[in-house]
Amino acid sequence: MTALTNRRVAVVTGGSRGIGAAICRRLAADGLSVHLVYRDADDAAKRVATEIEAEGGEVFVHRADVAEETEVRTLIGGILRQSGAIHVLVNNAGIIDDRLLALTKLAQWERVLKVNLTGPWLLSRAVLPTMLEQSWGRIINISSNSVRIPGAGQTAYAASKGGLEALTRGLAMEVGRKGIRINTVAPGRVRTDMTDPVSAQLGGNEGPRWGVPEDLSGMVAFLAGDEADYIQGQTFTVDGGRLVMRPRGGKGA
Ligand SMILES: NC(=O)c1ccc[n+]([C@@H]2O[C@H](COP(=O)([O-])OP(=O)(O)OC[C@H]3O[C@@H](n4cnc5c(N)ncnc54)[C@H](OP(=O)(O)O)[C@@H]3O)[C@@H](O)[C@H]2O)c1
Q1: What are the boundaries of each domain within the chain?
Q2: How confident is the model at residue 8 (pLDDT cuts 50, 70, 90)?
Q3: Looking at 148, 157, 207, 235, which residue is catalytic?
Q4: Domain 9-243 belongs to what architecture?
Q5: pLDDT of 116-146, one tens digit each?
Q6: Which residue has a Cα nearest atom 44 of ligand 1?
Q7: DSSP string of 145-166, one letter each residue
Q8: Measured in whole angstroms, how far is the alpha carbon of residue 110 from the centre of its chain?
Q9: Nearest-CA residue for atom 7 of ligand 1
Q10: 92, 112, 216: residue to mutate for ligand 1 pocket, most atoms within 8 A of CB
Q11: Which residues of 105-126 are buried (b: 16+ CB within 10 A; e: fewer)?
Q12: How far is the CA of 94 from the centre of ligand 1 (A)?
């Protein structure tokens, strides 16, 4: 809690749509003051904020590209001036740009890495001084079960998310004794704008059902709270069982 608000303060990147929007709604419903970060979708971000406020929640909306160091610094500085603290960071913003490696340009590989891996690194670095000062913090990184069962064309995406899981463990080693918990949630297939263009190719009738964003937000809310105090540096797959039920023989999900 802070002098400026009697709620815990959460920063959720990629909060305008899909899984991030569900996380914002859930954390606000749990009584946290939510700072929703998005990049382009002004109307969608405002819609999520309006929904949260209609339910009595507290939300602030910020535009920033998580892959840009100066934008991240300005973002976190502004939130700290506004709210006086940051207790929870959810690194959810992400992009997918599936292409066979042989057909991928360096700039395309680098953009995926920059948004999905450098972004969470920048955000984590920016919030750590405050969390260390508070001796309390939660960082929740959203990876993907593509780390374990990548589809063809997902080398960049899977590498970025695998790096994010390694970042989780590395940072847990560094600051785990200071009251900060860093964990990863790895979703399976969730119906959002990200998966809309590829859902027909991925199929849908075999294996477990497709997830909805709200299937993920409960796990994030748990990891963001006091009850997760003894959980550190872990990755939790939330995929309806796709990983264990996948067909064997190298065909992937
Ligand atoms: N959907 C799935 O099946 C699935 C499965 C596994 C993992 N995931 C992971 O879950 C997370 C959310 O996925 P989703 O399906 O909800 O995605 P989505 O519907 O495409 O939404 C992506 C969100 O990230 C934001 N974003 C993208 N690039 C950004 C940047 N450079 N700076 C700031 N914000 C940025 C977008 O902002 P704008 O709205 O402003 O563009 C949007 O809010 C991602 O990390 C994704 O990799 C998703």
Answers
A1: 9-243
A2: very high
A3: 157
A4: 3-Layer(aba) Sandwich (3.40)
A5: 999 999 999 999 999 999 999 999 999 999 9
A6: 94
A7: GGGTSPPTT-HHHHHHHHHHHH
A8: 19
A9: 144
A10: 92
A11: eeeebebbbbbbbbbbbbbbeb
A12: 4
